[in-house]
Amino acid sequence: MRILLIEDDLALCQALTTILHHAGHEVSCLHDGVEGLLALERGAADVVVLDRMLPGMDGVSLLRRAREKGVDTPVLMLTALDQLEDRVSGLNAGADDYLAKPFAPPELLARLAALGRRPAAYRPALVQAGDLTLDPVGGTLTGPCGSCQLSRRENALLGCFLSSLGQTLPRGLLFDRVWGLEADVEEGSLDSFVYLVRRRLRTVGSKLLIRTVRGVGYMAQMPC
């Protein structure tokens, strides 16, 4: 797998390059946000490891600009900041996963493997439920007040809810469907993405409610 590492810590870059090479990956490194954006736009990698704090352009701004230009390469964001608002801002900018420093190399490799897995190509039909229409391929959500673009994880999570209206979905099931059975994901990642999906629903003016079922998971309901 081709991995682009955008990180300004040269020692960390060298260490990660060694780890990734030993795991059989091709690795290229950049140390500046502006150069990183150009490489991302060129499609220079299958998966990107992106540091949040970069010279030239910070990682969140870089990722937001790339997503606005239609770049859909999976991105794992690295950061020394691990507060909920920091994770949410990174995910909201378009990150597919988030890993706080310091981290164990096996965890990094597992997360990259999960991001690199792609389902077989097919074009599912539009998903329509209540006042919403979801395009699973394009990741476009349309509601009474307009449309918005979803990240890959938001798309998968909302698809689970729309296909199971009125049903309680356990947290474990949602993790499996959104991140995959083998993915090692932080427990709080699901809650962060539910928060983002709720914001998307408000953006398009939908009445869909995603309720927290304490100790179990979540349930999506469309009011009568």
Q: Into which percentage range does the β-strand content fall?
A: 15-25%
Regions with little confidence, pLDDT below 50 for 5+ residues? 119-123
What is the multimeric organization of the chains shown?
single chain
Rg over CA atoms? 18 Å
Q: How many separate structural domains? A: 2
What is the rounded distance between the termini?
Answer: 48 Å
Please provide the count of β strands.
12
Identify the CATH architecture of the largest domain.
3-Layer(aba) Sandwich
Mean pLDDT value: 87
Silhouette: globular
Helix-strand topology string: EHEHEHEHEHEEEEHEHHEE
Helix content: 40-55%
Mind summarizing the main beta sheet? 5 strands, parallel
Order of adjacent strands in the largest pleated sheet: 2-1-3-4-5
CATH class call of the largest domain? Alpha Beta
Return the structural class.
alpha/beta
Continuous helix count = 8
Structure explained in plain terms:
It is a single chain. The chain has 224 residues and is an alpha/beta fold. The chain has two domains: 2-116, Rossmann fold; 127-221, Arc Repressor Mutant, subunit A (Orthogonal Bundle), CATH 1.10.10.10. 40% of the residues lie in helices and 23% in strands. The chain contains eight helices and twelve strands. Strands 2-1-3-4-5 form a five-stranded parallel sheet, with helices on both faces. A four-stranded antiparallel sheet has the order 6-7-8-9, covered by helices on one side. It has a three-stranded antiparallel sheet with strand order 10-12-11. Strand 6 and strand 7 form a beta hairpin. Helix 6 packs across helix 7. The chain is globular, with a radius of gyration of 18 Å. The N and C termini lie far apart (48 Å). Mean pLDDT is 87; it is low at 119-123.
